Amino acid sequence: MRTTLKRLLVAAVLVPLLALGSAAPALARGEGAGPAAAATDIKDRLAAIPGVTVTEEKPTTTGHRYFLLTYTQPVDHRRPWLGTFQQRFSVLHRGEDRPTVFYTNGYTLGTTPSRTEPTRLLDGNQVSVEYRYFTPSRPQPADWSKAGIQQAAGDAHRLITALKGIYDHEWISTGASKGGMSSVYHRRFYPDDVDGTVAYVAPNDVDDREDSAYSAFFDQVGTPACRAALDAAQRELLVRRATLEPRYAADNAAVGNTFGTIGNADRAYEVGVLDVVWAFWQYSTEADCADVPAAGATDDQLYAWLDTHSGVTSNSDQSLAGYTAYYYQAGTELGSPNFDVSHLKGLLHYDTKELYSPRSYVPRSIPMRFDPSAMRDIDRWVRHDAERIIFVYGQNDPWGAERFTLGRGSEDSYVYTAPGANHGAKIAALTPAESAAATAKLLDWAGMGAAEAGRPAALAQSAPFTDLDRAGLLEEHHRL
After folding, report:
1. Entry pTM
2. pLDDT tens digits for 383-401?
3. Mapped to the 3 state alphabet, what secondary structure does the chain carry?
């Protein structure tokens, strides 16, 4: 096991001292916990933390309390004097004697009481945070150069540090897709903030110029018959473009949608068609191949299928605005996928690599410059220094084509693949043996293992699936 001294030395070199006026040093020393500790009700204790504002308490299931809050964060953790913004987060309170799950959802905060799979398995508290630069957690004016992964890791570190004055038992971080990526990035810069991480379906695009893994995925996923049917339906959407694209444009115009960011309705339609097979495998299963429009399908059937899997309005300015922060990150640090579309030869109006890229989805007023070193650094850390991380992938999820892999330096970390699963893969979808092993490891990291005497027992795999869990699945499906 690596020594704490080594981590402290690495942190001293890589991570600037966080400060926010006089409040941040006090938080780092644990000062300011007195008023919170003196309060009795959990709502009052949360509100007493410097920088925290409780904006609302919502009703939820028996045994829990649910709060929406904001926390004052510096726009730039390296230069906190440049200003602050209010970052939204929520707390699902179960009890101060329970472990706490830190949910880095990677996108906009959901405001309905819900819990993730680790929270259910641990019967714990859950802190969910909105990723910086997703509205309303966006500084005004927005300096987009401060939207990167290290600044977001600083947000997580400050918030966890502040909340540990109340929740002082073990912490587990988690997230799915971009949220899973964010949980890993946070651990890279602040490895000791939490006791373990469960990262679901987290892509790892180490070399953004090399995307052959995605093409290989689409060449082997599912059955040959299903792949052929999908390619044929995708091609037919372009063959019938003269009929379907005007309908697409008219449907968007009817609800007031515009296409200033992506360029025009024709470009947006082509992107939607390029997306449709990817989206099919991301959200559907092989059983859904039976619903792919067959040769001779009507225009209505083809159009409805496109809308189901790609979304007729999803490339409009109005829809893209909610994801500007994601596409900005993809185009500056995270990378983005590309894949072979030779079966569409002769039907495409635009260069696929140019059209199907993050720059197409971000307003031109926001400058973007890609940093190829960001993901290489993360990948090296996972291979050489990562500890206590569980990666869960779906066998039929295209986002898993480029995934995190462990190296000789990775300790107490594991990669699992759920058979037949898509982008919604969970520990519960693993084989029984792997699900049991992953759950046992999670309980161990959270101090809930069999050897931990005197601690509340975890519900683990017998944990009841409640409305909170159904809401959690709906929230993740909405944002993945």
Report:
1. 0.89
2. 999 999 999 999 999 999 9
3. CCCHHHHHHHHHHHCCCCCCCCHHHHHHHCCCHHHHHHCCCHHHHHHCCCCEEEEEEECCCCCCEEEEEEEEEECCCCCHHHCEEEEEEEEEECCCCCCEEEEECCCCCCCCCCCCHHHHHHCCEEEEECCCCCCCCCCCCCCHHHCCHHHHHHHHHHHHHHHCCCCCCCEEEEEECHHHHHHHHHHHHCCCCCCEEEEECCECCCCCCCCHHHHHHHHHCCCHHHHHHHHHHHHHHHHCHHHHHHHHHHHHHHCCCCCCCCCCHHHHHHHHHHHHHHHHHHHCCHHHHHHCCCCCCCHHHHHHHHHHHCCCCCCCHHHHHHHHHHHHHHHHHHCCCCCCCHHHCCCCCCCHHHHCCHHHHCCCCCCCCCCCHHHHHHHHHHHHCCECEEEEEECCCHHHHCECCCCCCCECCEEEEECCCCCCCCHHHCCHHHHHHHHHHHHHHCCCCCCCCCCCCCCHHHCCCCHHHHHHHHHHHHHC
